[in-house]
Structures are given as C-alpha cells and as structure tokens.
Amino acid sequence: MPFILPDLPYSLTALEPHLSAETLRLHHGKHHAGYVNTVNAIVAQSNLKVESLEEIIIDAAGDAFFNAAAQAWNHTFYWSSMTPGGGGKPTGTLAQHIDDDFGGFDAFAEQFTTAAMGQFGSGWAWLVYDKGHLKVRRTPNAGTPLADNETPLLTIDVWEHAYYVDYRTDRRFYVETFLSSLVNWEFASRNLESVLAGKRPFAPAVQAVS
Fold this sequence. Notes:
The chain has helices at residues 21-46, 53-59, 63-80, 92-102, 105-118, 164-167, 171-182, 185-196; strands spanning 123-130, 133-140, 151-157. With 210 residues, it is mainly α.
C-alpha cells in the first residue's frame, strides 16, 4: 500500500512574497516527495503492512524508516501551519490558552522564536498540547512530538531548504515573517479544539492507497 504525496493546500505562488514559488516547488516537489518515496521504497523492500505514517513513527525499527516517515508527516503538517494572509495573533480558545500558559502572545512569540533559532543545524519548532498545557519545543532533524505522545498544534521547518532561497542565512527574519505573515492560527485552533473535545486532531493526508 504505497503512500501518496499530498498536494499543497494552496498554489505555489500563494505565500508570496514571504515564500516564493521556487521555494515551494523545491521544498514540496523535491524534498517532501523524496521522503514519501523513501517510505514507499522501505515498505516495498520489507513487505511490511502499515496503514499510516503515525504507525511507522511510533513503531519504526531503524533510523532510516523513522526519519523518512517523520519527515513526510512533519512536512504535511508544516504546509497546513501556513496560509495566505496568515500571521498576526490567534483568537478565541487558543488565545486564552496562550495567555494562560505563556503569559501572553508576546511571551509565546519570544519562546517560539528562541526555540526556532536555538535549534542547532536542522530541525523544527513546535507549539504542542501536552498534559493539559500548551508548550513550545524544538526537535532536531526528523524529530516530531508524536514520538513523545504530544499533540502538535503548529510547526515551523528550520531546515535550510525551507528558507535559504528567499532568506539565505537569515533564519531569524524567516521565523519572524512566519509569525507575522504566514502562520495559520485557524489550523492551530482546530487542532486544539479537537484535542480538548477528546477527538483525534489533524491527520496529514499522506495516505496509504491500495
């Protein structure tokens, strides 16, 4: 049952001028597609029966299999963490939880930026829900909060291929732009409201097909 690369949730030009069509074409069409293809190759060679990327992330035997599955999952989550005309501040339940757990949006933004900037080399920064509270955390390389039973609400990719075309080595400007102009607070809010209601939150559309 091969996995399929999901389409982007917007056009290649939809995030301009903040992320260019060239960046999305390379990032989605080359890097993300490559991880999906690697998962499929490992599944085919091993004759494993797997239904979801989450299953592989939790149970993968071997770094290569985990890395490919986690990166395929992380990237799909990242695309949904952005939206045309995004950025600004969240509202409603999410805003209240951010106030309660971080002491306000500015404090959250500072922690999130620090996590993204503090990830040495490649990796991710996340807003997660864990044991009744929102937290910011960072993961190296293909790391994902799913492996630690935390619920991701949104993420930013800080691998260089996510921003080098448009921002060169200026990761801080990329992170600041993500928060001011790209982040999809509606997506994060839906994830939080789902987990608070005891429902399954977002599941990336990298689906196994027969």
